[in-house]
Amino acid sequence: MASDLFEGIISSAKASISVILVLAYGYGLRKLNFISQEGENDITRLCAKFFLPALLFTEIGPLTTASNLRNYWPIIPLSLFFQGVAFAVASLSAMAGMPQHYVPMFIFNNVTSLPLLLINALAATGGLDPLVTGGRTLESALKIGRLYILINALVGNLARFALGPYLMKAQTPKVWIQGDAEEDPLLPDSGNIALPPDEQPKFKPKHRIIASLKRAKDWIVSAMNPPLMGGILAVCFGIIPWFHTELFGAGVLSPISDSINNVGKLFSAMQMMILGAHLYSKKGSNVQPLLLAWLFTYRFILAPALSISVVYFIRTTWPNFLDNDPMLDFVISISNTGPSALTLSAVAVMADVPSDVEGQVSRIISFCYAVSPFIAFPMAVAMRMVRQTGVGR
Asked: For this UniProt entry, which segments traverse the membrane (predicted)?
């Protein structure tokens, strides 16, 4: 366990240092006016509305196949369950006085880049050797581990951009909080239209249905932010075999997905740099240490304790629910662990929060990555749990 812990600390420290350095580059460029205020705003919008949708399209599309969804479906309800628990904890905390923009930070952690980097680093140092069973090679075990991580990321990304902007501000879309039916513009104005009393009930339910449908349409349109649209389009094209082969494989449409992929790769570095620029330009109010400590406690202690306990319970009481694969157990155990997602900075932009709140979001995310080496401790516990259950042997 000591070697697992040491390898995890080294790997996660390298990951966090690389993130912090890029943040520092963005901070320095903004301070030296290499990035102007207008440029900062333009890059922020580009990241949220162009680079990020492109990234989600090329990440989610290749994974969305009928066989993947059929074979690895348990990852989906477990991911939603962990997010649901985090939502309950964050909502109770918000009721106790925690600012609303903290809520998504409890729910949505980094489910893509950091887990991928960690298992790659563990594989390079031999840390994944105990998970290589069933006649697999290390490379094949690592490949299936990446697939598990990306399927979990598919769920996390879609949920983050469908709900994140609303959770950041705690505002129900206006279409759901309009006036009563008597004030609805689709209903007849009794002052202008004189209907016999016995005919009014015939029309009122009809108009109420029309009004409800209009409200539903308005809500759907307002929820369709660019990243969510990118993810939904990826699912639509990925699930259709012809498009999946021709677009995400080596078919005639592959140049389109290649170009989108090249654009999407710009997101991570640009987002981290602009996050650093926000640290300089959007000072925001001070981050309260107690709230930050509570966020860290949940993300690095309570959340992994939940996921590890759930996997252990399922494996020991309902073993057929999950495939007999130690890599699957390990990935699910660590999927709920780690710092808040970098993309929550883009979510804050989509939520149109005040500038001081946006600056505070940037600082909280930066603090999260500064302490991300602590992820090594739950990773070591997860590895120990997988070994004890003896799955795959």
From this structure: 6-25, 72-94, 106-127, 147-168, 219-243, 292-314, 364-383
Residue for token digits 């580059």? 25
Q: From CA 31, how far away is CA 40, in angstroms rounded?
A: 12
Residues β-bridged to residue 109: 340
Query: Please, how many CA atoms are within 13 Å of residue 283, restricted to the half-sphere of its CB?
Result: 3
- Domains of the chain, first to last: 2-175+226-389 (1.20.1530)
Which residues pair with residue 340 across a beta bridge? Answer: 109
Dmax (CA) of the chain: 83
Taken in order 356, 368, 23, 41, the sign of the CA dihedral is negative
Distance in angstroms between the alpha carbons of the first and the last residue of the chain: 20
Q: Using one digit for the tens of pLDDT, what is the confidence trace for 113-140?
A: 778 878 877 787 777 888 887 777 888 8
pLDDT band at 12 (very low <50, low <70, confident <90, very high): low
DSSP E strands: which ranges in the chain? none
Q: Are 108 and 363 in contact (CB under 8 A)?
A: no
**Residue 240 burial class via C-beta count within 10 angstroms: exposed 0-12, middle 13-18, buried 19 and up:** middle
